[in-house]
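User: Fold this; tokens only.

Assistant: Input:
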Amino acid sequence: MKDFEVTPLLIRMSQGDEQAFQAVYESTRDHAYRLIHYLAPNRQDAPDIMSEVYAELFRSWRSYDPRQPFVSWFNGLIVRQVRNWKRKEWRLFRLAEKLRIGPIQTSDWREERRIQQMDERLDLLPILQTLPHKFREVIVLRYYQDCTLEEMAELLKVPLGTVKSRHHQALKHMRRLFEQLGLRKEGEGFVY
């Protein structure tokens, strides 16, 4: 991938040429896939991360400064998307940990693998959708957007104590759902 091949395509994109983005994709996909493949936490995540990279490229291509090498800018975008993907995995891990009873040994790879298997077997979206809206907001903001409790209070325009209460009640509601699904038994953590 050479900068001189992509820059004219970005100019065409700025002029409304819809085919130009497809051409940018064709010109950069091999480079992107190789970099993602080496950086991704799990190789099977590479296609999903690739989609995230191109969605972000489509959203942010206007911020590219043609005076800098496109490859450097694009590599930065890829690295950020891989990091974001890792954070998403970490959020799922934190959420699973919050739903557990008892401490977790983060150095125990078997326990981490069980949580990952739970995530693979269980799509949390249907469970989130069962929550009342005010509880769903705090779970999504906390575990999917990495907001602090204070940031949530400001964003939702409610007192910090209200955010804490909603967070606690949402986790309690989710624990009950996990018990009903047979994924958690009182005092035993997740069961697989």
